[in-house]
Amino acid sequence: MAELGFKGPLHKQISETLTFLRTNVLGERIVKFPDRAEAARFYNFPYRALEEVLSNAVYHKSYELGAPIEVQVFPDKITVLSYPAPMPPVDGNMLKNQRLILSREYRNRRIGDFLKELHLTEGRGSGFPIIYREMKNNGSPAPVFETDDKTYTMVTLKVHPEYLKSLDEIDGAGTSVIMFSINSLDGLNDFLKKKLDGAVDGASAHIQNLLGATVHSKVMEFLEATLNWTYRKELFEKIGFSNNTQNRAKYLDPLIENDWIVKEFPDKSTSPNQRYKITESGLRLLNLISTK
């Protein structure tokens, strides 16, 4: 399991942790039904609930202890563990049975006021209702709060029950599924390997932004220019670039490495007869990014 640590001022730690989770973990799924116009939209984990859980962990932990707040991500849940237990009179029984807790004992009042000024929390006693509300509005299971009344507090956010269903299971129910949890190049290639037919509504801009950040901004042009076998000189002329080694390494090689474009003679890279053509994965990618 990979482990990352975020250091610095508290607001920076919260911001960087949430940014990482939003970019690499959180995803949206849209399910369209044949018998109605409105689609069902939900996230694996609602961002607002996660933001509130993390901010509350920062608010209520003891800074006399050296242990950091631990956020663990699993396919079916996210857990946020902090130390120690809540301040009395809050205990494990209260955490499990009350959705609104108004405790008059706060471990870090100044930190709470600071987080409120940054709009990371809404005020004392507001955390539990927000977390429950956001999970319910997303169609997710209720959050789980645990403590041993001495050493730790842990919050568990469970994944939306429909999110982990396979595409085959959902398609079998007569719906079409659109996933927006493509937040990395590896995730995009995994999606392309599923060989799904048809375009994904609304995904074009998102995926083009991802390609621009991780590959380059000319991916669509190169894919369109290689619908038929094409010599490299002709290819770069179509794009309007010089046919040189630097441009080949920057623009063409990454597409070959990702299996979006293939060489006609892969074992003869320097062959004067070398030509290039889009692959099946490249065609699926082109279909995604060219749909408005």
UniProtKB/TrEMBL annotation:
InterPro entries: Fic-like_C (IPR049514), RecG_C_sf (IPR038475). Residues 228-279 form the Filamentation induced by cAMP protein Fic-like C-terminal domain. It comes from the Bacteria. Coiled coil: none annotated. Pfam families: Fic-like_C, HATPase_c_4. This is Filamentation induced by cAMP protein Fic-like C-terminal domain-containing protein.
